[in-house]
Design brief:
single chain; 530 residues; disordered N terminus
C-alpha cells in the first residue's frame, strides 16, 4: 500500500450505465474502453478468474506480482526521524512582501475560522490588533491585487501557527527521505519507529494474560520493524520471564521480505532465538496445523487493504447482483469483465453477512424502488472484502482464543476506480505516484489497496467467531464471543503510546494530526468461547 498524506476526501464515483445484461455477459459488450486493459503477463490464462484471484495474482504471483517483483517496495529508514529537531523556522516567515507570499503560508482558512480572535500585526512599523478573519481578507486582497507592504505578525498571538510551520518542516523532511531512498512507500510503523510499535506493545502489555507464555503472530510483517520494535519494548519494560519465554512468529507470503525481516530483528542478538518467519499464505488453513487453544496475539498492520476483494455488479437498483470475472478477449491481450449469476460460496456468504437480500423491506418501499429504478436507473458496483472474510475464518478456526490488533486506512483519497469500497490502484514512476482509473491496468507494477470498512470488519469478526450465525436462531441467548473496539490512530496512541516522542519542535505531531484516515481495531475473546 502506497503511503500518501491526506488531501480533501473524495467520494466514490459510480460506474456509468451499461447496456442490458444477460445471465452471462461479456464485458466487451457492456463496458466502455475505460474498462478494457492490456495485460503484459500470463496471470490470466484461457480460463476466466474471479476478481479476487486476479487481484491476488497481480499482487502476489511469484513471477509477475507487485510484491514479489519489488522487495524494495517497502522502505527501511536507516535511522529514526528526530521529530523534536524538526522546526519550521518562524523567523523566515516575518517581514515578507505580501506580493511574494503564498496565501497558504498564512493559513487563511485557519484565520477565517478564528473570527473574534485578535492577532497582533505589524504593518510598516506600526503594531495593531486585528480580528483574525479581517486579517484574512486583508491578506487575500493584497495578494490578488499585488499590493506591496511589509507585514509580520506575532506567531505566539494566535493558536496552531506552530503546527502549520511544524507540518511544513515535517513534509519537507519526508520529501527529502523519499527522493534519497527511491522507495515506493514507507509504512507508518517505519516512519514513526520505534514509537508506533511501542504503542502496540503497550496495548498488548495492558491486556495480555502474562501467566502464560506470550505468543505473537504478525501477518505481513513488511521489513520487520514492528517485530523488532515490539520485542525491544518487551525486553526493556516487561518482566524478564515474559521476554525470555515469548515467541514472535511472522507469517509472510513474500520470500524476499521474509529475509529482510530476519535481518532487521537479528540486529538484537537476544531476539533471534524468540523470532521466526513462516513463509506462507496466512489465509491457507493447512499452514496453521492443529487448532491452538492457548491465548495468543495476532497483529495485522496495513494488511487488510491488500487482501483480495471480489466485485459484484447490478444493472440498476433492483436487478440481482452478478459475480464479476476477468477474462482475456479472444485473439487479443486485452482483459475484460464477465458477469455470472451468484454462485461462489465466499461471495454468497459475504452477501449474507451484508444482508443485501433484506426480507423486511416493506411492499410500498419496494414498489417505490422499482419505479425509481426505471425512471433513474443507476448501475451498482460493490467491492467485497472476501479475502478478509477468508482470513478471519481461518484465524478463528486455527487460533480461536486469539486477541487481534489490526490497523488500516478507513478511507482513501483520490480513488478513481468506481464502486463502493473501491481500491486505489497506484504505481510510482520517476519519483511520482500515478493512479489508475481501472483495476485491470495493474500489470504487476501497481499496488492495489482498499479502504477498510471497520463496521463491516466487526461484523465479519463476529460472524467468523460463530456468534452472528447463532443470532438467526432466536432461541439462542448466548452473548458475543468477542469484545471489540475501533479507535482512530490518535486515540489509540494517546492511550497506549508515547505521542510526545513524535512531536516536532513547533508542536506539530504528524502521528496524531496527519493520519486522520487510519484506525485501529482491537478484538479479544470473551468467556463465551464455547
Amino acid at each position: 500500500m502506497l503511503f500518501r498524506t491526506l488531501p480533501i476526501k473524495k467520494l466514490h464515483r459510480f460506474f456509468n450505465k451499461p447496456t442490458s445484461i444477460t445471465p452471462i455477459t461479456h464485458q466487451s459488450q457492456l463496458l466502455s474502453p475505460q474498462f478494457q486493459a492490456l495485460f503484459s503477463t500470463h496471470i490470466v490464462g484461457d480460463t476466466p478468474l474471479l476478481v479476487r484471484d486476479f487481484i491476488h495474482s497481480a499482487l502476489y504471483d511469484p513471477k509477475h506480482g507487485y510484491f514479489s517483483q519489488r522487495s524494495r517496495s517497502v522502505g527501511v529508514l536507516e535511522t529514526s526521524i528526530k521529530f523534536h529537531q524538526l522546526q519550521g523556522g518562524r523567523k523566515a516567515m516575518s517581514f515578507l512582501p505580501v506580493k511574494y507570499c503564498s496565501v497558504a503560508s498564512f493559513e487563511l482558512s485557519l484565520l477565517c475560522r478564528l473570527k473574534g480572535f485578535l492577532v497582533n500585526v505589524k504593518v510598516d512599523e506600526k503594531v495593531i490588533s486585528l480580528d483574525a478573519s479581517i486579517l484574512c481578507l486583508v491578506l487575500a486582497e493584497a495578494f490578488v491585487h499585488h499590493f506591496q507592504f511589509t507585514i509580520s505578525f506575532d506567531v505566539d498571538s494566535f493558536p496552531n501557527f506552530g503546527h502549520v510551520l511544524g507540518r511544513k518542516a515535517y513534509m519537507k523532511h519526508l520529501d527529502k527521505i523519499y527522493k534519497q531512498s527511491d522507495i515506493s512507500w514507507f509504512t507508518p510503523v517505519e516512519l514513526f519507529k520505534p514509537w508506533y510499535a511501542h504503542g502496540i506493545a503497550g496495548a498488548i502489555m495492558r491486556t495480555a494474560n502474562l501467566s502464560v507464555p506470550l505468543k505473537i503472530y504478525e501477518i505481513g510483517g513488511g521489513s520487520g520493524t514492528c517485530a523488532k520494535g515490539i520485542m525491544d519494548y518487551l525486553k526493556l519494560n516487561a518482566p524478564e520471564r515474559v521476554y525470555n519465554n515469548m515467541t514472535y512468529i511472522s507469517v509472510e507470503i513474500s520470500p524476499s521480505l521474509a529475509e529482510i525481516q530476519k535481518e532487521t530483528v537479528g540486529q538484537v542478538h537476544s531476539h533471534s532465538s524468540k523470532f521466526r518467519v513462516e513463509c506462507r499464505d496466512a489465509a491457507d488453513r493447512s499452514g496453521w496445523g492443529d487448532v491452538m487453544q492457548q491465548p495468543c496475539w495476532v497483529i495485522m498492520l496495513e494488511v487488510l487493504d491488500n487482501l483480495p476483494h471480489d466485485l459484484i455488479y447490478s444493472e440498476n437498483q433492483v436487478s440481482p447482483w452478478l459475480e464479476v470475472w476477468v477474462e482475456k478477449q479472444h485473439d487479443r491481450e486485452a482483459l475484460s469483465e464477465l458477469y455470472k449469476p451468484l454462485n461462489d460460496p465466499l461471495i454468497t456468504c459475504f452477501i449474507e453477512i451484508m444482508e443485501f437480500d433484506k426480507s423486511h423491506t416493506t411492499q410500498s418501499s419496494s414498489l417505490l424502488t422499482n419505479i425509481w429504478s426505471k425512471v433513474c436507473p443507476k448501475p451498482r458496483r460493490c467491492w467485497l472484502p472476501t479475502g478478509c472474510l477468508k482470513l478471519l475464518d481461518v484465524l478463528h478456526e486455527a487460533v480461536p482464543k486469539m486477541s487481534l490488533i489490526a490497523s488500516d486506512f478507513s478511507f482513501l483519497p483520490d480513488v478513481k476506480v468506481p464502486g463502493e469500497r473501491a481500491p486505489l490502484v497506484s504505481t510510482k514512476k520517476d519519483g511520482r505516484s500515478k493512479d489508475y482509473s481501472n483495476y485491470l491496468d495493474a500489470k504487476g507494477d501497481a499496488d492495489i489497496f482498499f479502504p477498510t470498512d471497520f463496521w463491516l470488519l466487526e461484523r465479519i469478526d463476529h460472524y467468523c467467531s460463530g456468534w452472528l450465525k447463532m443470532q438467526k436462531d432466536k432461541s439462542s441467548k448466548q452473548g458475543k464471543k468477542r469484545r471489540t473496539i475501533t479507535l482512530d490512530t490518535c486515540s489509540f496512541m494517546e492511550e497506549f503510546g508515547l505521542p510526545a516522542k513524535t512531536r516536532t519542535k513547533d508542536g506539530y505531531n504528524p502521528l496524531l494530526d496527519d493520519f486522520k484516515n487510519t484506525k485501529f481495531y482491537l478484538s479479544v475473546p470473551t468467556h463465551n468461547t464455547k
